[in-house]
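Note to self: keep these together.
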Amino acid sequence: LTYLVPSGEYQRETRDIGGHERTIVKAGTFQPVDKVITPTGILLGEEITGKATPVSLIGFLRAIPRGMEESSDIIFFIFIIGGVFGIFQATGVISAAIQRLMAIFRRSDTLLTIVIMTVLGAGGSLLGMGEEFIPLVPIFLRVAREMGYDRIYGLALVIGAWGVGFAAATTNPFTVSIA
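Structure:
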């Protein structure tokens, strides 16, 4: 889209906000910048002073690896948690835990849903957990099946609780600190 969307820039100014120096955009100061498209720029990319240059083919291909590098901590964390849950699944711990939960809450699907969603929502609200719940989805799909519900219900147990907890953050460092 860098070839189609008009290029431009805003004027910026530095202000002291809450004891921190911040560079902010001045409203209503957008000025279009001429776009230069050349064969070299399309393939390899080039910087031309005072002109906008769309992303090159090389830049496009480098974007995914660069994004993975910048997000490597969470990617590897999810891999590790997934591996741990794989070990738990292979040893039967997850099956035993699900059977125990189902035995305790056999007559009250609603109470089990409230307990699960409260725990996951607290993780999102207090600790900012979100991606960490991804490996839990297969577990809750199985819980939903055991309760007699479909896979959407199992996914909603995780995603719904996490989303509400994250949005209504109390000590979540990702949203409360930024706010």
